[in-house]
Design goal:
Blueprint: H1 2-27, E1 32-37, H2 54-61, E2 66-68, E3 74-76, E4 79-84, E5 90-95, H3 108-119, H4 137-141, E6 152-156, E7 159-163, H5 171-174, E8 195-201, E9 205-210, E10 224-229, H6 233-241, E11 247-249, H7 260-265, E12 270-282, H8 292-300, H9 304-310, E13 317-318, H10 334-348, E14 358-363, H11 366-383, E15 387-392, H12 394-402, E16 408-414, H13 421-425, H14 442-452, H15 457-474, E17 477-489, E18 493-494, E19 497-498, E20 504-505, E21 510-511
Helix pairs in contact: 8-10, 14-15
Length: about 525
């Protein structure tokens, strides 16, 4: 009996210990955020890590002169303050007292070095076009002037002067993008943002930790971010539903189409209109898309509305422009498409029988595959020619796009700022690495230059609209649909900044403690 009584008392004791431990865990907010990426990060260096998801990771690790705060407003970041001259062309930034993750002081020279690296035509960087508002940068990129001629110079360790070619009302917003981050020349792995890298295993996972040297580290509540590379969205969904990740969907992963109805029915999804467009780039240096009529025929020969209604399920809308809010051509004008196709055949001196093989390439995720299959069928019905599909792994595919090893290539293009110049400037020079259409046109360039010289904002926007209309007439790229940011998150995750620019910021994020389940009454 005494032994049995002892066993009962021990049982009660251990039960109380477990209950106390459970209460303790619930009272201590977890401080590790778990994310899954669909594709590998090509680089953690802001000069090279330009595309998704690299740019999102760069923003966790680095901070530029300006940033977007939790309320969505522009605010000084690495710059403590700035001034602008009366002509609106010269900014002077005063760098705050801050350090790199290795303890070295952050200086204006770090920005000068990094920015000059991005615009250096000898380096395989991306995003040089983001720097075009700065004086002489276009001439530097075109190899007409040395890198040192660019309008960025450090007067001393705490003063950076930036001269613009023309007043640019969007320049401060541009400074929040990842390409404008600083890099420490003596230690390119050092970071100055809210987090720093702890370890990385390519194609598998990486771990970030809170940067103790960040100038406002006391505001960063997360201690750790664990990122896994899982190249199957369905597997990611299973992990999320098991509570083993805290975020599922954009901007890191495209949702599996078959999962959307169930997630919507359970009211698990959140949606945000996105300033991004899915495009089919046409390689204008490869036959038959050297001919603008052929390019326009392929654009008019697809019915975007059918794709949006029957393939996509996240509230996307058709795109007949590269910037939202405009329409420059009709959707699904198949009779006009057939007419232009016949004219192009005649002018190119070919027939349907001698028409070259057309390969439609894309990153091989499910949504892209279904969109490509739908458009393949539409084109084959409209033009009577064979279209082959070419899905590829992302890293290989992106390299092929940038090297011109494609004929038609699908790609989501995300605006980094809200000004329409951003999407248009992509097509200004054929030699820009991001202009994978390899198209340029003097008339289009003149329109962009004229717009940037305008002081009247309304006139400037009118000229930019004229430039976009010209671009859509020449059609080096086919807009298909505007995207949405669709995602599900751990309901305990709070303080996340997410915008229509596909920006996501975990600087102020935290995980609330789980609520203890209450025993049923009785």
């Amino acid at each position: 009996m005494e032994l049995q009584g002892l066993q009962v008392r021990l049982f009660i004791l251990f039960a109380c210990i477990n209950l106390f431990a459970g209460c303790t865990r619930a009272e201590t907010p977890p401080k590790t955020l778990r994310l899954n990426y669909l594709t590998e990060v090509n680089s953690l260096d802001p000069r090279f890590g330009y595309e998704i998801p690299a740019n999102h990771t760069v923003k966790m690790l680095y901070e530029g002169l300006m940033r977007v705060d939790q309320a969505g407003n522009l605010s000084p970041a690495a710059a403590e303050s700035y001034t602008l001259d009366e002509a609106g062309r010269c900014y002077t930034f005063h760098i705050r007292e801050a350090c790199w993750s290795n303890g070295e002081p952050l200086t204006a020279y770090d920005f000068e070095y990094s920015w000059r690296s991005v615009i250096n035509p000898e380096l395989p960087t991306q995003g040089a076009s983001d720097f075009y508002p700065i004086k002489n940068v276009e001439e530097v990129v075109r190899r007409k002037l040395p890198v040192e001629a660019a309008g960025v110079r450090a007067l001393d360790a705490k003063t950076l002067v930036v001269e613009l070619s023309n007043p640019a009302p969007y320049f401060l917003e541009l400074l929040t993008t990842s390409a404008y981050s600083p890099v420490l020349e003596s230690d390119p792995t050092a970071t100055n943002g809210p987090f720093c890298i702890v370890k990385r295993r390519p194609h598998n996972h990486m771990v970030l930790k809170k940067n103790p040297y960040y100038w406002r580290a006391d505001k960063v509540l997360l201690e750790r971010i664990e990122i896994s590379i899982i190249e199957d969205a369905t597997t990611q969904l299973a992990l999320f539903e098991k509570g083993e990740s805290d975020w599922f969907g954009k901007p890191f992963t495209k949702l599996p189409l078959d999962a959307v109805p169930d997630l919507e029915a359970r009211e698990s999804l959140e949606h945000l209109p996105e300033r991004a467009v899915y495009l089919y780039f046409l390689n204008t240096e490869k036959f038959p898309f050297t001919h603008p009529k052929m390019r326009r025929a392929f654009s008019l020969g697809m019915c975007r509305q059918e794709v949006v209604d029957h393939v996509l399920q996240e509230g996307e809308s058709i795109a007949t422009s590269v910037n939202p809010g405009k329409s420059y051509f009709p959707d699904g004008a198949k009779l006009e498409a057939a007419r232009l196709f016949e004219e192009a055949l005649l002018e190119l001196e070919i027939t349907r029988e001698t028409f070259p093989a057309v390969r439609l390439s894309y990153c091989g995720i499910e949504t892209n595959q279904r969109v490509a299959a739908a458009i393949q069928q539409q084109w084959q019905q409209t033009f009577g020619v064979d279209i082959s599909l070419d899905p590829q792994e992302w890293t290989t595919y992106y390299d092929n796009l940038c090297s011109g090893n494609y004929l038609i290539g699908g790609l989501s293009w995300h605006a980094r700022i809200r000004d329409p110049i951003y999407n248009l400037q992509l097509f200004k020079y054929s030699e820009d690495r991001l202009n994978i259409s390899n198209w340029e046109n003097g008339e289009f360039q003149a329109l962009l230059d004229s717009a940037e010289q305008q002081r009247d904002p309304a006139v400037r926007l009118e000229i930019l609209a004229e430039a976009e209309a010209f671009l859509m007439e020449q059609m080096p790229v086919i807009p298909i649909y505007f995207l949405t940011v669709s995602y599900a998150k751990n309901p305990q995750l709070k303080g996340v900044y997410l915008s229509e620019l596909n920006e996501i910021d975990f600087t102020w994020s935290f995980l609330e403690p789980a609520q203890l389940s209450q025993p049923p009454p009785g």
